[in-house]
């Protein structure tokens, strides 16, 4: 029977608490309220070494929980960033397609404008072409 009880490996804090005959479980020391923990520390039957160990056990236990929570938050943040990254990449792809479409439209309208300009110049004839003067003002407006 004793072997079955001892078969579960004790943590460092459990071994230390057992060696100093602390009458509270490690889990209780870690998870009890601050008021209950103060009562443990004010227990007249505990010596200084036992009180110091209780403080160390609680500090390490609380730190372990805080570290676990920190790792959990970090994983959640990474997950959120991965989702956001996917969304941003999708938006980038949409913008790239829209840019390509707009560039094609720009090129198409540029060619149409050049074609129209050639047609107008050709329809005016050679003599009219020499007489045609375009003066661009500062705003880019064209005067004839």
Write the layout of secondary structure elements.
Blueprint: H1 2-7, H2 12-19, H3 26-31, H4 34-41, H5 48-131, E1 135-136, E2 142-143
Antiparallel strand pairs: 1-2
Features:
single chain, 144 residues, two-stranded antiparallel sheet, 2 strands
Give Rg in angstroms: 41 Å
Mean pLDDT: 86
How much helix is in the residues? over 70%
Count of extended strands: 2
Largest sheet: 2 strands, antiparallel
Strand order of the largest sheet: 1-2
Number of helices: 5
Task: Outline the low-pLDDT stretches.
Answer: none
The best one-word shape is rod-shaped
Beta-sheet strand percentage?
under 5%
Distance between the termini: 110 Å
What structural class results from the helix and strand content? mainly alpha
Please write the string of helix (H) and strand (E) elements. HHHHHEE
State the oligomer: single chain
How would you describe this structure to a colleague?
With 144 residues, this protein is mainly α. Helices cover 78% and strands 3% of the residues. It is built from five helices and two strands; from the N terminus they run αααααββ. It has helices spanning 2-7, 12-19, 26-31, 34-41, 48-131; strands at residues 135-136, 142-143. A two-stranded antiparallel ribbon has the order 1-2. A hairpin with a 5-residue loop joins strand 1 (135-136) and strand 2. The mean pLDDT is 86.
């Amino acid at each position: 029977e004793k072997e079955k009880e001892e078969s579960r490996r004790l943590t460092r804090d459990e071994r230390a608490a057992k060696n100093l005959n602390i009458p509270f479980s490690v889990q209780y020391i870690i998870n009890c309220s601050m008021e209950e923990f103060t009562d443990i520390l004010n227990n007249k039957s505990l010596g200084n070494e036992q009180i110091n160990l209780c403080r160390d056990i609680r500090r390490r236990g609380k730190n372990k929980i805080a570290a676990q929570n920190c790792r959990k938050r970090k994983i959640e943040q990474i997950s959120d960033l991965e989702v956001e990254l996917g969304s941003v990449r999708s938006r980038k792809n949409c913008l790239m397609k829209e840019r390509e479409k707009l560039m094609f439209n720009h090129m198409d309208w540029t060619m149409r404008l050049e074609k129209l300009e050639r047609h107008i110049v050709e329809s005016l004839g050679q003599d009219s072409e020499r007489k045609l003067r375009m003066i661009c003002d500062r705003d880019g407006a064209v005067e004839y």
